[in-house]
Amino acid sequence: MFFVRTASEQDLEKVRALLGETWHATYDWIYGPDKVSELHASWHSQASLKARLANKNSEFLVADDGRTIGGMGYAAMSKEMTKTVMLHMLYVSPRHQRQGIGRDIFSELETCFPDAEIMRLEVEPQNEAAIAFYKAHGFVEVGRTENCGDGQSGIPALIFEKPLAM
Q1: Which residues fall in a coiled-coil region (predicted)?
Q2: What angle do CA 136, 141, 143 make, to 5 degrees?
Q3: pTM (2 decimals)?
Q4: Which domains does the chain have, with CATH numbers?
Q5: Positive/negative CA dihedral, 70, 87, 117, 79
Q6: What SS3 string covers the chain?
Q7: Does residue 69 contact residue 18 with C-beta atoms inside 8 Å?
């Protein structure tokens, strides 16, 4: 049984390992293992995760069974868009998928931002499982970008949004 809780600095190495495993399982066939390793090293470095953990306008959650981190989620209020929370990460270990962990993390993240009216995310266009998950949880496609994440990544993404209950 996994319980969703706020992440701590002691969780970051396990979270980083989970992200590496999940990213390779999800994206190797799209980008190739070398590109996935490069993105993981950059986007999920210990310093990057620690900075997210310290962000006061965010929530960094893990699903923990006492031995294993089975999933993680990270969302933060947008700096550019008012009343919008950005869902930056929602990942579940491949061996723990389809057990409700992603649903439980997502449900918790939805309630963490009382001033937000919209939740927004970017998703890889070929990640059909993630797209189906988000659509099942009320998201609709509102656009596309050629630069997923910060900067000029050159990685395309679909942009999805969901109104949040007030």
Answers
A1: none
A2: 160
A3: 0.92
A4: 3-163 (3.40.630.30)
A5: positive
A6: CCEEEECCHHHHHHHHHHHHHHHHHHHHHHHCHHHHHHHHHHHCCHHHHHHHHHCCCEEEEEEECCCCEEEEEEEEECCCCCCEEEEEEEEECHHHCCCCHHHHHHHHHHCCCCCCCEEEEEECCCCHHHHHHHHHCCCEEEEEECCCCCCCCCCCEEEEEEECCC
A7: yes
- The one-letter code for the residue type at 159 is I
| pLDDT digits 0-9 by tens, 122-138 | 998 999 999 999 999 99
Closest CA to 134 of 160, 110, 153, 154: 160
Please enumerate in sequence order all residues whose Cβ is within 8 A of that of 20, keeping only pairs 6 or more positions apart, or say none.
40, 44
Largest Cα–Cα distance of the chain, in whole Å? 43
- Strands across the sheet containing 84-92: 3-6, 58-64, 69-77, 84-92, 118-123, 157-163, 140-145
Rounded-to-integer distance, Cα 108 and Cα 160, Å: 19
Read off the pLDDT of residues 59-102 as tens digits, 9 standing for 90 and up.
999 999 999 999 999 999 998 888 999 999 999 999 998 999 99
User: Does residue 111 have a pLDDT over 70?
Assistant: yes
